[in-house]
Amino acid sequence: MYEVEQLIGAQWKPAGDNGRFEVVDPADGSPVSSAPTAVGADLDAAVKAARGAAPGWAASTPAVRAAALHLAADAIENAADRIADAQTAEMGKPLAGARAGIQAGVATLRQYAELGPLHGGRTLAGAAEAIDLVTYQPRGVVAVITPWNDPVAVSCGLLGAALVTGNTVVHKPSERTPATGWLLVKLLAEHLPPGVLSLVTGDGAVGAALAGRQVDLVAHVGSTAAGRSIAASCAGTGAKALLENGGSDPLIVDADVDPRWAADQAAIGAFANSGQLCVAVERIYVHRTVADRFLAALVGRCREMRVGPGRDPRSELGPLVDRRHREHVHAQVTAAVADGADVLCGGTVPDGPGAFYPLTVLAGCADDMAVMREETFGPIAPVLVVDSYDEALSRAGRSPYGLAATVLTGSMANAQRAWRELPVGTVKVNAVFGGAPGGAAHPRRASGEGFGYGPELLDEMTVAKAVHIEPPGGPAVRW
After folding, report:
1. Which distant-in-sequence residues (6+ apart) come within 8 Å of 296 by Cβ?
2. The domain containing residue 354 runs over which residues?
3. N or C end of the chain: which has fewer CB within 10 A?
4. Do 340 and 293 fall within a single domain?
5. Eight-class DSSP state of 133
6. What is the mean pLDDT of the chain?
7. Do 464 and 132 meet the contact criterion of CB atoms below 8 Å apart?
8. What are the backbone angles phi and psi of residue 264, rounded to the nearest 5°?
9. What is the arithmetic mean of pLDDT over 14-32?
């Protein structure tokens, strides 16, 4: 059992006045971690400590801040197995996937450690006797609120970018992975001055209360509902909101692609991390000419993939994060079936312990079904057959979300149309995952606002200041 503590200022504190909450293993229901529920006084103290540490940390050189991140990255890499064990126990991801997420987080910390000292301003062409420049300064106190589905990689990105630009941080990890967040912050905080990084724990109400405090920026990755609540709080306090919310990412299968290869791509996109990814494939539009072969291959791929406990090295996919989330996923499947969808595989809640849910393929889906309209966040592949590429693009673009989209096509003309016309932040052609390091995009609509990745994240964490300097007037001025 992990006994999580909060870090407020420089003090580790075991419990708040609201007591503690418990997380159980989604594979078998056994207790995994116990964490404090922060109260208002905890949040006030954490923000106060961050505010007090802000001037000193902002005045430190970018090289000093970068060196601290490099040391922390080394420590996290050395502790990867221990952190992966906690993550797998708390949210179910197989150990290999948990380790991969931790390595991604380490790489991101190192990326921002390298980019931070290069994040300079620029000079402007003004009058010959004057100096004009634009410089970047830290925003101040940043509240970082992160999700459970990839807790280390996401947290390292936001924490790394905030810290290397000279901000102080109050971090609240998801209540579903508090021990993972605690282990991560322990390793980071060892290399930072007191008060620069604090950790508070608790549920969504704690996150909402933190977002309403007098902080300067709230960086959040999570659900659209939570993101909208945070945006409303920031409108009241004047803080900047940096949000990556939910998504309902489409996959388009064109008429000219190999349906078996397309099914493999769809399986990767829909089922990776048991469908619990912001950029998971949530709805599939397949051309009628390849639909039957695509569906047969996708069902076959489902039956080949092994679902089991995350600690079992044979498991490709683990359980859902908890039974409450499983109820949400199954409710969408049940509603789709009631409205006419056909279950080609899966679709039933299994007996036994844990929060397992089978890989599920639904055919005969319609645009107004929740599985096609909302974020399911589970191992569900809902399929709608279309008669043309135009129809697929049109239907794919009707979502209230705008995070990402994938198009599988053999036509360069259709690929070009996809990235030009789809109203999303990221378009991937012929690969559901992948891309060069440093890519950054703006999510659209209900999916959020602001850059969440890449060098541009450093811009989000800072404020630009224009400076104009002239010599003073009067006689005999030395300048």
Report:
1. none
2. 249-429
3. C
4. yes
5. E
6. 96
7. no
8. -60, -45
9. 91
